[in-house]
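Private note to self, pasted from the team thread so I don't lose it. Backbone tokens:
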């Protein structure tokens, strides 16, 4: 897609290209908070759908996290706009106690869980979010700060599988400013979430750094280009890991995987880490382990294959290694202390 000026509204041909992947879907869920990005997503999707003789049913879903007094009113405003665009709408509430630590991550997880439930109830195949190139750049900076590996630095994917659904981000190459310009031209209002400017949270703090970074050439466009290149490298490494796995990895029974230790010892660290992550993820009970813990595990295995045996648990998996064999299985339940 040809790059447009930052204040250039999205045209009809661009919208057609942005939503082309969803034309054959029976229904799609649009995640709409009422902010400029998601409001533009809904408006563009409605305009695109109206030009089709046949196309998916559109369902806009607003998740009310209950964290601000204005959130219920904002959800009603989204419902009213959706009705004017002839789009079905549902408001879902995040019920229960809210954590004091890690609130943004908890809210995000709750939002996706509610969106998935709405999608399955509507027989939708896709959840479509309004993440922009600005969001992609901020995500990449956050992952750089955490020391993420190649997969993490690929940042957000345009499409990914999530619980039997496709999570799609068609606006990932579009700057936020173009979405605002689109709404302004159409005379469509939107809300501004004050938490987007709350410096108590990491993402708004990084946002304040963007003008200074842009002066050095590190702007949203260059960061999203870097993330795309990392995604390309990550896809190549995944393909290599697939090929290697077919020759040295085998299932050894229910909940147990074996590696040929001698062949594993010859692998580059990046490929070996991916095989370990896959094996542990397939049998573990505590989710995917952190990259740093996987790196420590790999170092221990490298030592074991040089003549030392070891046994270790990680993320609910039991890993044992010798000169000949690496075995990964489900760890026994932890004993509770009286």
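Design output:
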């Amino acid at each position: 897609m040809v790059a447009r000026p930052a204040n250039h509204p999205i045209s009809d041909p661009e919208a057609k290209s942005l939503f082309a992947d969803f034309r054959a879907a029976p229904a799609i869920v649009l995640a709409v908070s009422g902010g400029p990005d998601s409001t533009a997503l809904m408006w563009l999707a409605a305009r695109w759908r109206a030009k089709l003789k046949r196309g998916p049913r559109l369902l806009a879903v607003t998740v009310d996290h209950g964290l601000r007094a204005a959130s219920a009113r904002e959800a009603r405003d989204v419902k009213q706009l959706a009705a004017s665009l002839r789009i079905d709408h549902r408001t879902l509430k995040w019920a229960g106690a809210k954590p004091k630590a890690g609130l943004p991550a908890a809210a995000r997880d709750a939002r996706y869980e509610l969106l998935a439930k709405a999608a399955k109830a509507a027989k939708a195949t896709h959840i479509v979010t309004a993440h922009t190139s600005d969001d992609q750049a901020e995500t990449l900076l956050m992952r750089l700060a955490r020391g993420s590996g190649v997969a993490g630095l690929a940042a957000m994917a345009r499409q990914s599988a999530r619980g039997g659904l496709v999570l799609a981000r068609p606006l990932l190459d579009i700057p936020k400013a173009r979405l605002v310009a689109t709404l302004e031209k159409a005379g469509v209002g939107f809300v501004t979430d004050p938490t987007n400017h709350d410096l108590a949270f990491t993402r708004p703090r990084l946002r304040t750094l963007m003008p200074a970074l842009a002066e050095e050439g590190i702007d949203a466009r260059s960061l999203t280009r870097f993330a795309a290149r990392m995604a390309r490298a990550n896809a190549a490494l995944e393909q290599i890991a697939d090929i290697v796995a077919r020759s040295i990895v085998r299932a050894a029974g229910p909940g147990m995987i074996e590696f040929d230790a001698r062949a594993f010892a010859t692998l580059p660290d990046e490929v070996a880490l991916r095989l370990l992550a896959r094996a542990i993820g397939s049998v573990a009970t505590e989710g995917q382990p952190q990259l740093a813990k996987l790196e420590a595990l790999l170092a221990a295995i490298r030592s074991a294959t040089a003549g030392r045996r070891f046994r270790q648990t990680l993320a609910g998996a039991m890993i044992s290694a010798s000169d000949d064999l690496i075995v990964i299985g489900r760890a026994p339940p932890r004993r509770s202390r009286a």
